Amino acid sequence: MSSEDKIIDLDIAIIGGGSAGMALASRLDGLFATVFEPKTASERDCSWALWAQAPQLLELSLSVRGSWDKWRLIDHSGEVIHHSHQYRYTCLSSKQYLQWCETHLKQSVNLLRAPVENLVTKGSGASGGQFDAGGQSYRAKVIYDSRPPKVPKNSLCQHFIGWEIILKKPIDNADIATLMDFRVDQSRGLHFIYVLPYTDRHLLVESTMISNQLEDKDWYRNAITCWLKERDIEVEAQLHEEYGVIPMTKVQPQNADVVNIGAVGGAIRLSSGYAFSTIQTQMKALANSITAGKAELPKAFSGALMFMDKVFNRALKAEPDKGVSFFMATAKALNADQFSRFMLGQARPIEWVRVILAMPKKPFLKAALKQWLNHD
Ligand SMILES: Cc1cc2nc3c(=O)[nH]c(=O)nc-3n(C[C@H](O)[C@H](O)[C@H](O)COP(=O)(O)OP(=O)(O)OC[C@H]3O[C@@H](n4cnc5c(N)ncnc54)[C@H](O)[C@@H]3O)c2cc1C
């Protein structure tokens, strides 16, 4: 650390200018705050998708890569197509979203392109601390930390590689997003292909696994290549490749003595890996709480939802070969709007009942009992 007289004092330090850090920073006003983020938005570009209704779609419009009112899940026995009148499955460019947030930072909020190092906290929770960044020492009254979490080995994760590609010829059904096409190799874990047609010749195609074991990158690439080949889809150009690992279990923060936000703060939906929408809601509420003179982080999910998701993951882990039927049954049990609410963690009690009734009883009762006895 530098000497005491060179320390810069902040009301708020936000460590990590990703989805959560920038969503929070762009809503702060009147406080002396700095976001510390080593990477530019271009350096960490990927796709973030969510189910959005009209007002949110308008708010995010400058970052939208594609948006669909129809989506489908497919397995060997058929497909479920949803057509929604209230929600659109919407894919954002993370680069454009983060740049948009950057342009909306108020005058008292800065963004510094440097990693935070040597963090020393005063106590636990919102009691602040001191750290270095870019050769300068800082002291903050409150620290919000979104640095990616430590993920215990062999944890259940969603892991994928996605290609943004231009095709030689247009495809059919470019108005439908394919959320899960399970007609692929299931020998290594629950595996599906995810396809977002931005246009009929411009697609994002991802090979996604839900399992405890990451694969070699060529494994996902090969899965994409095979899926395209089986459908006679020829690639003219590959524009971008994205790789991701999203934990689907409880994660360890880098520092438990600060306020952890975003993925590390528990905003990832354990049964699906989706987090963007929850982060938006949570950061909006946190910014309001800060404006009101508090620093409390609202809960990302209710206890009941967390319990249900953990039961789902337990059942999936115990019987991975039934995973395809769990997802297909969920999609069949709900219509498009109900499914959107379910995926957003906003399902109504009757929608939960429909999903529970659609699930095979034995594995889920077993998983529920184990989860109830375990209390983790
Ligand atoms: C490739 C990918 C695609 C995803 N797609 C979706 C999706 O479609 N829909 C969805 O809902 N969720 C998706 N997720 C899950 C989740 O929404 C994202 O992971 C989201 O970025 C989490 O936001 P965050 O702010 O917690 O973390 P991040 O956005 O990862 O931000 C953390 C930031 O901390 C920075 N950092 C690291 N070390 C330091 C340091 N020492 N000092 C300062 N900063 C540091 C990193 O550079 C990073 O920018 C995806 C995740 C990945 C990885």
What is the fold named in CATH at topology level of the largest domain? FAD/NAD(P)-binding domain
**Please, how many helices?**
10
- Give the CATH architecture of the largest domain: 3-Layer(bba) Sandwich
CATH homologous superfamily designation of the largest domain: FAD/NAD(P)-binding domain
- The ordered H/E elements are EHEEHEEEEHEEEEEEEEHEEHHHHHH
Q: Could you give the distance between the termini?
A: 38 Å
Bound molecules: flavin-adenine dinucleotide
Structural class: alpha/beta
Roughly how much helix do the residues carry, as a percent range? 25-40%
- Would you report the number of β strands? 17
How big a fraction of the residues is strand?
25-35%
Please tell me what the overall shape is.
Answer: globular
Largest sheet: 7 strands, mixed
How many separate domains?
Answer: 3
- Average pLDDT taken over every residue: 94
Descriptive account of the structure:
This protein is α/β, with parallel strands linked by helices. The chain folds into three domains: 4-44 and 95-149 and 252-291, FAD/NAD(P)-binding domain (3-Layer(bba) Sandwich); 157-247, 2-Layer Sandwich (Alpha-Beta Plaits), CATH 3.30.70; 303-374. It has helices spanning 19-25, 54-59, 94-103, 217-230, 276-291, 303-318, 323-333, 336-343, 349-358, 361-374, and strands at 8-15, 33-36, 47-52, 64-68, 70-75, 78-83, 88-93, 109-112, 116-121, 129-133, 136-145, 157-167, 176-181, 190-197, 202-211, 235-247, 259-260. The longest helix is centred in the C-terminal third of the chain and has 16 residues, at 276-291. The protein binds flavin-adenine dinucleotide. Flavin-adenine dinucleotide is lined by residues 15-21, 36-39, 44, 46-50, 115-116, 146-148, 242, 244, 246, 262-264, 274-277, 279.
